[in-house]
Amino acid sequence: MVSKFKEQISTKTPGFIISLTIGLAASFLSEHYGAPAMLFALLLGMAMSFLFEDPKARPGIEFTGSTILRIGVALLGFRIAFSDVVALGWPTVTMVALGVGSTILFGVLVARLLGMSSRFGGLTGGAVAICGASAALAISAVLPKGKNLEQDTIFTVVGVTTLSTLAMILYPMISAFFGLNDAEAGIFIGATIHDVAQVVGAGYSISPEAGDLATLTKLMRVALLLPVVFMFIMVFRNSPSEGKKPPLLPPFLAAFVLFVVINSFVPLPEVVTENLTAFSRVCLITSIAAIGLKSDLKKVMHVGLKPVLLMVAETVWLAGLILLCLPMIG
Fold this sequence. Notes:
330 residues, 16 helices, cell membrane, Conserved hypothetical integral membrane protein, transmembrane helix
């Protein structure tokens, strides 16, 4: 038993170390150049995808792109507390939930109209609606394995991260154009920008009040990751033609629920939750580096215009819907 465990560790270590090194390099570049760390990790991994051909590295890269990914998603639960959701007020919570649900449905419908799969529309819609790259990785983890799943995931991460960065620049200007006050601007930014880091950057560029509300609203969207991922599991359990059915409640999703409950009802020291969420980010960046290592750059570069139009349309839909709803909750 012990010898078998040691053998598994030694087999997976080289690929894991490669993925971790790329992830750390991406974090360093992100801190010094201001671009999203996940995007750097994915692009660096894709540039070094030849390493995946090495039989010594392959098992560890596979392990990192699946198991380490699930650990990172589970630990996202420590970002969320029920008190944060209640603090927003039910009108705002309802608006955010409407934005998330409608954007996913919009993505599925538009994908079908453009001749793409509803699964791809759901994946991109979920990424845009919830929390960008993290949501894309979580949804991808429960989708049935297919020949295009990794390619679709990579495109979604690149697309949603790029759009999130553009939104960080444009949405404060849009808030000013529509005459939103600081509270309204914060809710708008938190309910629409895809990635957490860009939400924080855009919100606090307006004012401390806008930044606080933007962050709180964003956490509400992250909290919806659980029901959305569970919805994907139920849909594909009823679609046997899509491949092997995912388990009804994967262990990483059960852990996510447990960590949300702990963070909501157990008075954990702030340093503990900060370190756990930081560790979650390291896991996600490392796993996306592994996904990049497994990718075929040529296939990703030939996705065509339709997927780009789909993600832009989803982003515009979400922003337009929230702008329309904001006067109703004021």
